[in-house]
Amino acid sequence: MVDVNYGKILVVDDSRTDRLIVKNMLSDYEVLTAGDGVEALSEMDKNLDIDLMILDLDMPKMNGFQLLEVMQKNPDYSSIRTIILTNFDEIEHEVKGLSLGAVDFIRKPLNIESLRIRIDIHLRLKNAQKLIETDNERLDAMVAQKTTELVTTRDITIHALVGLLEVRNIESGNHTIRTQKIMQVLCEYLKTKEQYKNILTENYIKDIVATTPLHDIGKVGIPDNILLKPGRLSEEEFEIMKKHVDYGIIALKDEIHGEDQIPSFIKTAMSIVGNHHERYDGSGYPNGLKVEDIPLEGRLMGIIDVYDALMNKRVYKPAFEFTETITIMEKEKGKHFDPEILDAFFEIKDKVHEISMKYSQEQDLLGEL
Question: Is residue 312 assigned to a domain?
């Protein structure tokens, strides 16, 4: 059984005699005393570990009800359990005291046995509450640690997969940074708009941004003679190139057995991989989806991927100037691109351009020197 004779008790009563009587009754506890509500607050501020307060109602300066009202407004006092001790018999006083946070009500003259039993009960409850709070803190810490570990594992996995693209000179490190940062600013800007504020939650945005680099992961399965061809692909070659979407999805879910085992970021990654080549008018691949049948992350990635491809040199094309890139994309509004999202993209185009310049292709080349 838990030993409850450890508690710190504050006795608040304007009668010095009553304070002494109660203190003597509770000699095996640590007992503090106060003559009114003002003195009680001073004692509570000096002793933040008070467990229980025995409170008289009828006192000068600040009565018991007034003290309870002050305590209700200050979270520092929320852990103190209050037993009201009074001469009043009116039921409304009891109701009012309990509504202000008191946990029990004892009338004078005191019955020592009854008082001791009630104090023991409330101190046991207080101790049980402390144990629960300690357990909850420990569990919260464990959850936070596991969450950090999962995020770290996710990021390592993503960087390892993207590293395969860099090893084969399919993509550069700065392409990854550019597309992620552009995705971040675009999502955050869209979230300010009414139609997206409830869709683009904080966790959804984190998943989209974290998995953006994986959009072309399936290209590791495309032969070099097609992937790195310095010219236009033939129809047959393009059909092979389009298979990178399927390869990417297969790579992501290869070790997953059952839909319920797929983490949210993997689902988002598969959607980005599978839908960023779909077109708003239905002329894209692999499924010919159109309009809002294309998941939001696919429509977002489609715009960002084309923008970055136009702005940077590829084996099959030179880099375009920023104004020319914007003009080309404007012509695809409502055809290749979701018109609302493209408008939002253009509204933050200066931020996008700043990211492009800060992490430009030239910076990639400098890093290789």
Answer: yes
